[in-house]
Amino acid sequence: MLASIVLPLCVPVFLYIIVNLLLPDKTPRHGIYATPGGKWYSLKWLFIYCMLKLRHRQMTKQNKLCDKPGDADQKSAGFGIRSHNTGAEMELFTDLTDKPHDNNSVYLYGINPVDGTWIGVRIAKRQNGVREVWFFLRLPGLNYDLLLPQHPDTMVPDVNSNGFEGAGLKIEVTEPMNTWNITYEGNCRLASRDCSSDQEGDNPDQKGDGKLVYVSCSLKWRATTPYVNFDTDISLRLMAQNIAKEKWTREFFDNMKRLHQTHYEQFGEMAGSVNISGHPEQHVTARGVRDRSFGPRMWDGFYSYCLLFAQFQDGTSLHAGSFCIPNIFSHLNSGFFINKQGVIVKTVSSTLSLPDLMPETTPPKTFTFDMKMENGATYSFTVDMESSVVLIPDDKLDIKIHETKAAFTMNGIPGHGIGEWLTRPR
Fold first, then answer.
1. Residue 375 CB burial class (10 angstroms; 0-12, 13-18, ≥19)
2. What is the longest distance spanned by two Cα atoms in the chain?
């Protein structure tokens, strides 16, 4: 009786083991990018999914997924565990560790698709008073972009400030997870637009006529959605896929723990005034995203990435990403929606594929991809890249970041946003 029950269960298990013992390792695409499938993939996926589920459930029982102040173990953060217990604690955390590649950054962008306004700012705190500073501004009625004088270089040394400040730019929280102030006082360089065009694509300096003008701006950013914490709010199914498709070694798991960084995002809108010498004051409004990251950030560890943000006419906000960091994840996908009711809908699978998007070093002009969501719905996207601003995050590395305005459609619904691409020579 027992044999008649056990034997049918043992046969498929035995066959699975035999097949996987005989199955060769799956060859990464272009010798870099891991893909799902291959030896032991389904077993690896099930094991990791169960571990992530247990980890998440354990923290829920300990009430550390709730916004209650208290101590949190930052060394254990990630994969279902928060670095801080509350959003306010994360927002106000501006410290750096003594690790040489530590990073603590804030980034915001905004676009107004009606009048063409485009604003992008970022400050990353680094060791020894170094800051990475991004600032670019496109305004209606002005035929040039406004960039920092040292653009495309972003490294600013000897900053004597504990906050997010450098090169005349200051970004500071006024109400955690709700409002931030952005101010800039200083010279900007007038730069010709459309750096992504064939004619200017070989000129990442984006020099334009090179004239310096004095710019003063004051903007307030206000959240319009809840925040998404990548330590706890990304689909466990998708994360299990990201881990299972990689080759498992001791070094892989050590790097996954050692190089983890906390990252969260929130959509919102900004409004304020911009004064340019010789021009009348302009009032600007724009919609976009704000993100925060803290933890190790080594630009030389990146091979490539594509990061998409968009907001659609039906009130939906989108994040979709694909990243290649060979020492950790050679092909990591991420994604979520926030609908107009403020509900976060997690992505469980995505066809956004770096080896298809960038077989070489040039970001595509137009592409499509699909995402399947946790609620069972599937969405199809078309993305048309427009003009770009090119930045160099580290002057010692041959790496470029392309911030690109983009037009989106989601199942036929129009939207707007950006694509951020990291490229390096092959």
1. exposed
2. 92
